[in-house]
Amino acid sequence: MALSGVQKTVLVTLAAIALVIGAVVNKVSRPAVLDREQLSQSGIFLFDSPRGIPEVDMLSAAGGSWGKQDLMGQWDLLFFGYTFCPDICPTTMAELRQLVGALPEASAKQLRVTMVSVDPNRDTPEQMQQYLGFFKADFHGATGDPQELAKLARALSIAYIEPDTSSDNYLVDHSGQVVIVNPQGQYVGFLRPPLKPEELSQWLPRIMNP
Fold first, then answer.
1. Cβ distance 188 to 157 under 8 Å?
2. Cβ-Cβ contacts under 8 Å for 70 (sequence gap 6 or more)
3. Cα separation of 154 and 116, whole Å?
4. What confidence tens digit (pLDDT) does each residue in 66-76 have?
5. pTM as predicted
6. In this structure, are residues 68 and 181 in contact, taking their beta carbons and an 8 Å threshold?
């Protein structure tokens, strides 16, 4: 049956309304674009494009080898420090514990925190495992020979000064940022210290699941 002019007008109007409603719903339901200025105020810096991470042959604090393969399949936060560090390391590790505890459960399950030692002379896997246990049982650790450590640190823009190990109580100067690695094993940004666990717990789930 042929439609009258009025019926055609009504159908066209309804179709136009449906399109407008659909566009509005899509806009509302779509997550807002991450604002770089807001991220930087929370201490988060993301690169325009991911950066590669080289293969390394290091030791896991839990025993066995540790390398790029351990950075695949989940989001990772890497902090370069050492167990004899008197200040920034225990502070940052405690902040990371607060951050993980403040994340939604689903996001926390997608995230792994690893401390990479810049003091392989003293930080044996056993020493690291004991240290990590003070903060959170499922935090990970890695250590290794100076050449492999330096290769990884350079790729992740981590600066540290190899110490004079002739003294038992030497200190190691090192960067304090926390590296963000995506599930493809790529360096995508970093967190600037001091960390802000509550703010980061709001932003990280959106970064991990854009």
1. no
2. 60, 114, 140, 142
3. 13
4. 999 999 999 99
5. 0.83
6. no
Residue 55 has pLDDT above 50, yes or no: yes
Q: Is the pLDDT of residue 7 over 70?
A: no
Residue 90: how many CA atoms within 13 Å on its side-chain side?
8
For every residue of the chain, which 3-state class applies, written as one string?
Answer: CCCCHHHHHHHHHHHHHHHHHHHHHHHHHCCCCCCHHHHHHCCEEEEEEEECCCCCCEEECCCCEECHHHHECCEEEEEEECCCCCCHHHHHHHHHHHHHHHCCHHHHHCEEEEEEECCCCCCCHHHHHHHHHCCCCCCEEEECCHHHHHHHHHHCCCCECCCCCCCCCCCCCECCCEEEECCECCEEEEECCCCCHHHHHHHHHHHHCC
pLDDT, tens digit, for every residue of 146-179?
999 999 999 999 999 999 989 889 999 999 999 9
Side-chain half-sphere of 71: how many Cα atoms within 13 Å?
A: 28
Mutual orientation of helices 88-102 and 197-208 as an angle, nearest 10°?
A: 60
At residue 13, the pLDDT reads: 55
